[in-house]
């Protein structure tokens, strides 16, 4: 282990789909401490007919955090996947980046499959076929004035150091990366007539790419899920992970991508992890359903905290109704509680009315989807998972963590809450030469972070609940 010199100060920017935060880390004598110094909302805006990220406002928050942090040794960014900005020939942003929830790609996949079949597209890239993926967004984007496409974490870094790169983990969310060669898929780019030169050079996570006011700008695992997995406490071969925030990403680490028809039909995705492994996972709607329901209740004059919503869900009667959390009607902003009621009416189930009943339905439906994915993933990989690591903001939802352990029938370890920011910090340390490997960093995290253990209870009830979900039978 290194790290016996002067204190190293590291600034990690972690952008989620609903909020962002700046975490200041200090590393001295082999020990890492960290604290949040700035938190801010990430509110999309409607502009020129599209839902967009308010990038100038977000950069304003970055500069505020840099002032609060003072001099640092390194800076790095991680964000959600798939979205990007367009730069003109002078390196200026052409327009505010379009949000993945914008409706422009609603019917694009059908057009894409007339160019390249779903089977061939999955075999070439290993990416879960989702309308939000970068490839489908680019099909609906005017590239005539664009000299460069930069994914969101690379776009933030570019604003500081003016060095354009494309980090591999974020590129692997695009539906255009050949995971086996770790380069752009010639077959995909050629089929869709996307010029390869529009993308910046690919770099590995943990690469120093430039400087800003004396601080090294580091390209870490730009996709927040991969930064979160980088900080996962040391695990065995038979562990799965759940990175839980606005989105839920359920997966495991593998040595090679799974590109089979069975994997494609199960809607699994292969992404490049920070340690060179494949993170085999499924994208599932996450706490977005609770977040958007809370916004609706606020619009109705009922301002509940997340803790209050969880407490009401705890008191509600269990297993009264389920929804398919990935159903398209739940993807767009709006009155999610009423959409849940409509879904339950249409499927002949109990119709939740109170805040607690709606929230209970969401939490249990998420746990059911995790169970289905858990079983599916075991079947495809041949693994038998013995533990689950829950990472990210979802760790704070104790009811969801317990329901997940119950549904899967295996112990769940929840923590660290700030896994994404910690993974970001670890990869900065690796780039600075302060630690030798990700394994060393994970061992360090295990010493400083407390995880909460959830032991499964009444898993047989969840087996009955699965039959209820599938057939409408009573539990």
UniProtKB/TrEMBL annotation:
GO CC annotation terms, alphabetical: cytosol
Keyword Protein transport among UniProt keywords: no
Residues of the Carbohydrate kinase FGGY N-terminal domain: 11-214
Highest taxon listed in the record's lineage: Bacteria
Coiled coil segments of this chain: none
Matching InterPro entries: ATPase_NBD, FGGY_C, FGGY_N, Rhamnulokinase
All residue ranges annotated as the Carbohydrate kinase FGGY C-terminal domain in the record: 241-431
Single GO molecular function: rhamnulokinase activity
Signal sequence, start to end: none
Keywords, alphabetical: ATP-binding, Disulfide bond, Kinase, Nucleotide-binding, Rhamnose metabolism, Transferase
Family designation: Belongs to the FGGY kinase family.
Stated name of the protein: Rhamnulokinase
């Amino acid at each position: 282990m290194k790290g016996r010199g002067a204190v190293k100060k590291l600034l990690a920017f972690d952008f989620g789909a609903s909020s962002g935060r700046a975490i200041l880390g200090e590393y001295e004598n082999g020990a890492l401490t960290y604290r949040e110094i700035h938190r801010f909302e990430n509110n999309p805006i409607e502009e020129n007919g599209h839902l967009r990220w308010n990038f100038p406002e977000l950069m304003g928050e970055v500069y505020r955090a840099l002032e609060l942090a003072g001099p640092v040794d390194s800076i790095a960014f991680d964000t959600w996947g798939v979205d990007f900005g367009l730069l003109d020939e002078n390196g200026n942003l052409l327009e505010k980046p379009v949000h993945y929830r914008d409706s422009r790609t609603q019917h694009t996949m059908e057009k894409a499959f007339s160019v390249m079949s779903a089977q061939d597209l999955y075999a070439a890239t290993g990416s879960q076929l989702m309308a939000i993926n970068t490839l489908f967004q680019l099909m609906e984007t005017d590239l005539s004035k664009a000299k460069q496409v930069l994914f969101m974490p690379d776009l933030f870094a570019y604003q500081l150091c003016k060095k354009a790169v494309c980090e591999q983990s974020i590129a692997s969310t695009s539906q255009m990366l050949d995971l086996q060669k770790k380069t752009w898929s010639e077959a995909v780019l050629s089929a869709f007539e996307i010029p390869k030169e529009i993308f910046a050079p690919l770099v590995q996570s943990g690469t120093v790419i430039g400087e800003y006011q004396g601080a090294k700008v580091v390209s870490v695992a730009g996709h927040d899920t991969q930064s979160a997995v980088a900080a996962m406490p040391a695990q065995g071969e038979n562990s799965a992970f759940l990175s839980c925030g606005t989105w839920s990403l359920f997966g495991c680490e593998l040595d090679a991508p799974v590109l089979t028809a069975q994997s494609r039909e199960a809607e699994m995705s292969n992404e490049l992890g920070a340690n060179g492994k494949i993170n085999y996972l499924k994208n599932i709607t996450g706490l977005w359903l609770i977040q958007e329901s809370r916004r609706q209740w606020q619009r109705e004059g009922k301002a509940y905290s997340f803790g209050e919503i969880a407490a009401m869900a705890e008191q509600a009667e269990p297993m009264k109704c389920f929804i398919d959390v990935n159903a398209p009607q739940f993807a767009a902003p709006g009155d999610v509680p009423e959409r849940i009621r409509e879904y339950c009416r249409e499927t002949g189930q109990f119709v939740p009315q109170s805040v607690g009943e709606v929230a209970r339905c969401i939490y249990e439906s998420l746990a059911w989807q995790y169970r289905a994915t858990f079983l599916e993933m075991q079947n495809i990989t041949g693994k038998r998972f013995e533990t689950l690591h829950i990472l990210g903001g979802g760790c704070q939802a104790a009811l969801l963590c317990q329901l997940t352990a119950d549904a899967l029938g295996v112990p769940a370890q929840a923590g660290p809450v700030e896994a994404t920011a910690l993974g970001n910090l670890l990869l900065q340390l690796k780039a600075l030469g302060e630690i030798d490997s990700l394994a060393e960093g994970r061992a360090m995290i295990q010493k400083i972070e407390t995880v909460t253990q959830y032991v499964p209870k009444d898993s047989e009830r969840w087996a009955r609940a699965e039959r209820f979900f599938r057939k409408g039978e009573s539990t």
